[in-house]
Amino acid sequence: MKRLFIVFLLIGSLALPLPSLYGQRRPAKNAAVTTATLATQRGADVITAAQMRSFLYFIASDEMEGRDTPSRGLDTTAKFIAMNLGRWGFKPAGDNGTCFQRIALRRDRVDAAQTRVELNGQTLTAGEDYLPSATASHISGQLVFAGNGWFIKAKDIDAYKDIDAKGKIAVVFSSPMGFPRGLRRADLTGKQGEDWMNAAEYARKQGVVGIVYVPDFQFLANWDRNRQRIMERGTTIPEKFQAQGPGQLPSITASPKLANALFQGEKQNATALFEAAYGGGSMPSPFALNPDKKLSLNVAAKTETIGTQNIVAVWEGGDPVLKDEYVALGAHYDHVGIGNPVNGDSIYNGADDDGSGTTALLAMAEALSHTTPRPKRSVLFVWHCGEEKGLWGSRYFTDNPTIPLDHIVAQINIDMIGRSKKDGDTNPRNKDLSGPNEVYVIGSTMMSTELGDLTLATNKSFLNLNFDLRYDDPKDPNRFFFRSDHYNYARKGIPIIFFFDGVHEDYHQPGDSPDKIDYQKMEKVTRTVYMTLWEVANRSVRPKVDKPLPAQLAGN
Ligand SMILES: [Zn+2]
Predict the structure, then answer these.
(1) How many whole angstroms from 153 Cα to the centroid of ligand 1?
(2) Separation of 246 CA from ligand 1 center, angstroms?
(3) N or C: which terminus of the chain has fewer CB atoms within 10 Å of its end residue's CB?
């Protein structure tokens, strides 16, 4: 009797955040039936593997060209999403009565005709001898060799140890934006700018006036593609993000021919240094090059304004008061575009990343549009752009919201839910990929105990997928919490839930294609998210934020 009483108490406490599911106190064996009926009433059956397959085969098709930000493929995908939202009767919530929230981008490109780089007075050829970054510059100076250019306290790496590089041009053996050999993101512990600095940051700190990057084999093997990327496409960034941070240091990327010329007659030649940096030897100490050698960079750049967009739409709630509050759903519809070919394929389709989340949101939108009565709260859909560039779209939306941010009661982010680990898969790159009935759930408990409990209880009473919570930890070395759009909502105090299938062999590869997706899994996860969305939307009070974002997650 006593024991039973305790059990009832536990059920009672679970019932609090979930009145619609548990309020009826049915016997346990009927609970699943009840939830299934409820799911049908709410339109969850509209979400199907077949429907998502047809959406995703469009979104992740080669014609979308990998959906880089900005690109024609991304714009076409945006039109496809908006066209469907229009058909389903969604309320546009972007700019000027459209579903598009426009983001102005500034693009800087090299003006090759006006650019001149000289070594000891001898003019070098742009595109052949070097690739100039699109930073207008007029500098010249003596040269220092500075290892890989990085500072990483925990690894005892200090590229400028015991050398004065002030006012000089540093030659570093690393690829621009690349990581030094043998290091991973997880090795960068502590605070950026203090405990670690990349080559550009550390050079600036040392008073260096310009950088010559000597890139690795992979960069050299794709020299032509890199030339196109750096010289023709240039660098692009949202105009509103411009003011922050110092400008770029002038830099060029050297061909092997130029690297040889730079180290001619020095105590270590370019081949030896290349071997040390990329082969496996240890990196020699920094040294000043012959003071008679002088490099000058006169780089001209052209600037233009182009655009991209988030897609924003609202499904209005049915309750006259609660409809002013929103449950936000998010995914990123961009990917990394066209890149280095692998087995002859250069289109990075991004079917899982994040075609799957993009599709899941479309499927949920279609389901809502078929369902009466409506959920009590409104549902805000945001398809973000530029996630792969550094969470651009979500940062832009949360800094320039088109609805009041404090009316968002929770944000649910879906980034990769389409892949599953097959039985007998021993590929180490699929080690952490979740199985067909599994998904990683991250962040749901970090700010709101109620939201975390609701997420688990909804799943238990419905499809009972295996929710793997191992990354739901502020100390997660993978830092998944920072690595997708939900982060920008959490930063603004909005509790979030992040659904994710885990890293796999095709992550950021041309092989992330729609034929490799487990559509049954996508259906299960999307229906589960959909039911979670309804539970949050129909609660009488919004999920309470009872803890601040953990300190490890608040910074960055
Ligand atoms: Zn992603």
Answers:
(1) 30
(2) 28
(3) N
- What spacing in Å lies between the alpha carbon of 332 and ligand 1's midpoint? 7
| Residue 374 alpha carbon to ligand 1 centre in Å | 30
Ligand 1 center–CA 387 separation, angstroms: 7
CA of 355 to the centre of ligand 1 (A): 9
SS3 of residue 355 by DSSP: helix
Distance (angstroms) between ligand 1 centre and the Cα of 229 equals: 22
HEC states along 12-57? HHHHCCCHHHHCCCCCHHHHHHHHHHHHHHCCHHHCCHHHHHHHHH
Query: Ligand 1 centroid vs 223 CA: distance in angstroms?
Result: 27
Rounded Cα–Cα distance for residues 286 and 268 (Å): 11
pTM above 0.90, yes or no: no
How many A from CA of 418 to the centre of ligand 1?
A: 12
CA of 24 to the centre of ligand 1 (A): 39
Q: Where are the beta strands (DSSP E) in 206-270?
A: 210-213, 235-238, 251-254
Strand, helix or coil at 2?
A: helix
Rounded to the nearest whole angstrom, what is the distance from the C-alpha of residue 300 to the centroid of ligand 1? Answer: 35
CA of 394 to the centre of ligand 1 (A): 12
Q: For CA atoms 83, 84, 85, 88, give the dihedral sign.
A: positive
Contacts of 3 (CB under 8 A, 6+ apart): none
For ligand 1, the distance from its centroid to the CA atom of residue 388, given in whole angstroms, is: 7
In tens digits, the chain (556 residues) has pLDDT values of 333 333 333 444 444 444 444 444 444 555 656 888 999 999 999 999 999 999 999 999 999 999 999 999 999 999 999 999 999 999 999 999 999 999 999 999 999 999 999 999 999 999 999 999 988 999 999 999 999 999 999 999 999 999 999 999 999 999 888 888 888 877 888 888 999 999 999 999 999 999 999 999 989 999 998 999 899 888 899 999 976 556 789 999 999 999 999 999 999 999 999 999 998 778 899 999 999 999 999 999 999 999 999 999 999 999 999 999 999 999 999 999 998 889 999 999 999 999 999 999 999 999 999 999 999 999 999 999 999 999 999 999 999 999 999 999 999 999 999 999 999 999 999 999 999 999 999 999 899 999 999 999 999 999 999 999 999 888 888 888 888 999 999 999 999 999 999 999 999 999 999 999 999 999 999 999 999 999 999 999 999 999 888 776 665 4
C-beta neighbour count of 40 within 10 angstroms: 12
Ligand 1 center to 356 CA (angstroms) = 9
